Amino acid sequence: MLIAGATLAGMPDRIDGWTRDEISVLSSLSLKQLPPARKDSSNAYENLPAAAHLGQRIFSDRRFSSNGAVSCASCHQPAKQFQDGEPLGLGVGTGSRRTMPVVAADHSPFLFWNGRKDSLWSQALGPLEDPAEHGGNRLAYARVMQAHYRKDYEAIFGAMPNLGHLPKDASPIGPPLQKSAWNAMPESARHDISRVFANMGKAFAAYQKTLQYGESRLDRYVEGVAGGDKSSLQILSPQEKNGLRIFIGKGSCITCHNGPLLTDQHFHNTGIPPRRITTPDLGRFAAIEKVLKDEFNCLGRYSDARPELCEELNFIAAADHTTQAAFKTPGLRNVALRPPYMHAGQLASLEEVVRHYAHAPEAAAGHSELKPIKLSVQEVQDVIAFLGTLSGPVVHRQMPYVAAQSRPDK
Q1: What is the rounded CA–CA span in Å between residue 385 and residue 212?
Q2: What is the reported pLDDT for 8?
Q3: In whole angstroms, what is the distance from residue 375 CA to residue 161 CA?
Q4: pTM for the whole structure
Q5: Would you state the pLDDT for residue 13?
Q6: What pLDDT was estimated at residue 278?
Q7: Separation of alpha carbons 314 and 263, rounded Å
Q8: Known binding site for heme c: residues?
Q9: Is residue 271 classed exposed, middle or buried when 0-12, 13-18 and 19+ CB atoms within 10 A define those classes?
Q10: What is the DSSP string of 44-113?
Q11: Where are the domains of the chain?
């Protein structure tokens, strides 16, 4: 397999109509070029099989919600690319943004549409206490862990705290009664409960790291082109190939949707209309302060990282005009299988998406980075056809069960 940037000496000047430079660009999109996700120093348990098995079990447990009807899998449905197909996330209430898929999320330095979390384990905690998502509280969750998962939890993280003398519900960010109960607890008890909560997130993250994308038709085609395998050149239709050519050429899609996951992992304002024009979502602009103040960030007391290892947080860019209404570039793998689109499901189809980017309307807040692109009706359809070649399986990387002695030293 040709790797991006490798010498093309000895190859024909063109293969299936692609120049050497274009083949190098195509190769950079291959899933085989995806490097291993960076080690998350803030989670000492991320590669522990026992933690992944625990995380998988609690991922589907509806007891981790205020009404006993919502689990992580309610929105991140395996049958729907680990999202839910809804414009807005639906938990105990209705959220304000679309559910993002969690497949290959371990490659992202910041999570959620606005990047308000800086690790996969910290990301998993947000929805649990969000009133529109799981709507629960961390003391109640600790009780569920103790009642139903104590043996597995303690084999990984050590002894659970004594909860018998504590109230039924308490949370630092819940409704007034829960906040009052939380503040009335000794600081040591609050710390113990938050530690259990953080460890839940680390188990979730260990499981989510096992979810990765499998090979698509684009990957097989690119490998064939780069390897000179003529039998592979028919994997894509002429229409799909033309869509690919527009994607990496005049459409400039690859500017942001690049690399094996087809995302630069950054945040951009692309003029997507807000759901509420009077109160536009400020996206990244409003999230930077949140991630810096998050008690579960890389620099927090529940992180397993040394401060100097928290590079993304230590060197985070300040909020300014470029971050207003800027949202995460979503990866495009399996994109044709998971409508609707954009951060709040504003666009129902890929045709609407392509037309939006070609038209490049002014942003309701901040400044859109887009510039108009002239695409014919046929070219729009060609790009849509190409996006369908990115569909492939979701691969669950199985991890053998390992018992208590696998607990990492800290």
Answers
A1: 23
A2: 52
A3: 62
A4: 0.92
A5: 75
A6: 86
A7: 23
A8: 72, 75-76, 253, 256-257
A9: buried
A10: TTTT-HHHHHHHHHHHT-TTSSSSS---HHHHSBGGGTTB-S-SS-BSSSB-SSPPPP-TTGGG-SSBST
A11: 14-33+215-283+324-392, 49-212+401-406
Considering Cα of 406, then 37, then 208, then 65, what sign does the dihedral take?
Answer: positive
Regions of the chain short of the pLDDT cut 70? 1-11, 399-410
Determine the pLDDT at residue 403.
Answer: 46
User: What is the rounded CA–CA span in Å between residue 162 and residue 240?
Assistant: 60
**pLDDT confidence of residue 9:** 54
> What would the two tokens of residue 228 be?
């000179």
CATH architecture of 14-33+215-283+324-392: Orthogonal Bundle (1.10)
Determine how β-strand 394-396 pairs with β-strand 267-268.
unpaired
Token pair recorded at residue 31 = 């899933």
Fold classified for 49-212+401-406: Cytochrome Bc1 Complex; Chain D, domain 2 (1.10.760)
| Equal CATH topology for 14-33+215-283+324-392 and 49-212+401-406 | yes
pLDDT of residue 409: 43
Cis preceding-peptide flag for 280 (omega within 30 of 0)? no
